[in-house]
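Limitations
The structure tokens in this dataset are predictions for the assembled complex, not deposited experimental models. Users should treat interface geometry with appropriate caution, especially where small molecules or nucleic acid strands are included. An illustrative entry is reproduced here so readers can see what is and is not provided.
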Amino acid sequence: MDASYTAPPGNHDPDVVVLAENVEDVIESVLYARENGLPLVARGTGTGMSAGAVPLEGGLVLSTVKMKRVIDLNVNEKWIQCEPGLTTADVKNAAAKHSLFYPPDPSSYKISSIGGNIAENAGGLRCVKYGTTKDYVLGLKYIDADGNLQSTGSLSNQVDGMDLTPLLVGSEGLFGVIVETRLALIPAPRATYTVLAHFHDIYRALEAIYTFLPELVPSVCELIDGEVIKAISQHDPYPFPEGCKAALLVETDGEEEAAKLELNRVMEVLEDHDALEIHTAQNPEERERLWNLRRLISPALSRIADGKMNEDVVVPIGKMATLIERVEEIAKRYKVLIPIYGHAGDGNLHLNVMYKKANEENRIIAHEAIFDCFKTVIELGGTISGEHGIGAAKNQYMNLQFSEDELNILRQIKHAFDPDNLFNPGKMLPPDSS
Amino acid sequence: MDASYTAPPGNHDPDVVVLAENVEDVIESVLYARENGLPLVARGTGTGMSAGAVPLEGGLVLSTVKMKRVIDLNVNEKWIQCEPGLTTADVKNAAAKHSLFYPPDPSSYKISSIGGNIAENAGGLRCVKYGTTKDYVLGLKYIDADGNLQSTGSLSNQVDGMDLTPLLVGSEGLFGVIVETRLALIPAPRATYTVLAHFHDIYRALEAIYTFLPELVPSVCELIDGEVIKAISQHDPYPFPEGCKAALLVETDGEEEAAKLELNRVMEVLEDHDALEIHTAQNPEERERLWNLRRLISPALSRIADGKMNEDVVVPIGKMATLIERVEEIAKRYKVLIPIYGHAGDGNLHLNVMYKKANEENRIIAHEAIFDCFKTVIELGGTISGEHGIGAAKNQYMNLQFSEDELNILRQIKHAFDPDNLFNPGKMLPPDSS
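Predicted assembly:
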């Protein structure tokens, strides 16, 4: 299992588990799996949200969590070379020691493995300014389906289109087992400013975002809707103002003066859009306090219901208002709660369909609601996954978004890397309809 | 022909030329080429540097230069949707009208087509801070080998790894004909500062770069070597200081205060590294004057010899000094001049092997020198192309850089898109050795 709300039915026990300690162990595992006709599922720390690391058909589960060496860190060229088992936080910390910064920050960054981040092209709060994992992977070493060590890329952003690296990032373990990576780092921003605003109307908050985005790129732009606020209010003594139906957490970063200028402009826009209250942080303690609201979300939602289908759809920024309206309609139609929060700066919203795990009918209705949400997202020109991957949780929806021609090309690319379907079968690609 | 120094032997005349005015024309051309067994070579304005748009085997040349509509520009979501025949400058200008910025700037940006930029993953002076074309292509529409309209991507940077867009960018016309694209724009930087420094020793200039890069990301970082300076000095009354053997042009941009702070830090580092002279620009006229040196390079080199093999290799930043030393040795060994300049901020240097066109022996020696340069680059962990593409100019060197396994995967990907090898045959991929 992993951190996803649902793996397809079945017990999903592996036949063999390997805790690889080095490249040789990985090669041996691939050869063993191949010789014994076992599917091979590579796995990091299991924080995935789309059942990507769940061995659907049993087989060999190959964990790389013990492979956590920092092989090299080059301050002047700004990169770190490391093994896949390192946590995202380990990478960030190693960089921070040299005043460098590794920006991707999935919510699970303290425990998620960097190999898993690469396999899923993990995002996070800072994507709006800094992009996702794919923007930082300079090169990879992986073990291919024949047990051979292959390497791709490794240089700066000036490598031509022939590089296979971008194809491997986000390939969800279908093409090979990542055993080493070189990640780009950037100079750490010298200053960060934080502002939290409350609104009586989520659409005003969206208009505010829509207004400041053409002028500046915030480093964080998180939206929280009225359902989430209601869930938090039920138990936490959080001081929401009267009539608060939305909250917006924005950060600007960079050089001191520039970040402050941008913050001021954001605050001006928030005021213009009738924010009920605006709080800014002047020091790390205050910053922590503002961020606390974001952290209350998950525990609050888990108190509403024990089941939560957390989908991370993306729509064009200008379509977020329509999406929120339509999701409210879907929630009413199916009589389910769908609290929404997420990375509004790039249209990546988390739709949380709440349900009771024990109630099978309840679970089916939740699935139907999700399906309607996905259809709406596609209609609005969006995608069914922003940062969680497809895995086994969403591959049945792939043909909502991809044409049969596209899927055929993807199947052929999979075949080019892995002709015998050794790696992570049943994931990402929908079952062939032919 | 295009702007490359050499297309392989042959007259390369097309059998049919189509000036497409719309998508229907492109579809018709693809179907015509397919029915008549003609290879199809898509072409923009012909500014390519690797013979990518040269019809090696004749066939149908399909120009998209007449397809130059701006279809939409969304200020709040920061993107432009346009046809491939628009010039890079057109895209920049359309963005600038809304205080937005399209960063990629190949030297030919005033006349290069955006479709060609995408096909070649064009770079430019500002890559060091802003990345290459691939970082801006959100989505594409293309006509596939069956004459069908396909579309990929289109959203923000939060789309998962399944997206075929990154694969199409830099695919050099091998996968389909691009008929429309959506490009990301960014808020225009509010201020730009420029500094030009002269050095008596190129290695001191490299050390300076190496020193400031971990702390800040300049928007331009161009290096010019002693051979280039000698070439300019021969005819231009450029006021180089006595003993000048290298020049470094650096820009910082962003918010006023931040850009100024970064400039000051760069100047401090330049002084610490014994710059002979340091000039800064306080206004657009002065800026133009500093940039003038960069513009003198091409005409000056063309006065040394009428043939110039301009290669754009990339090496790790820390290996630029070694590369320059080794290229000097190669130049001595072959008795050729190899002036060097380029985008030192990301290790992308232009090695210009000068030769006399009329002298066949001279041309062969130049080719041998280039081959030695490529081998050195690969040895240093570099790549044989940074921004010019592979095309027909460098595909014979592909196996210096790519393993046979990698090339096989690339061949299969080509086959997935274009099983009958209709599009741009003979480019990028080396001839199959099997």
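Some entries come with short summary sentences. For this one: Chain A is about 35% helix and 20% strand.
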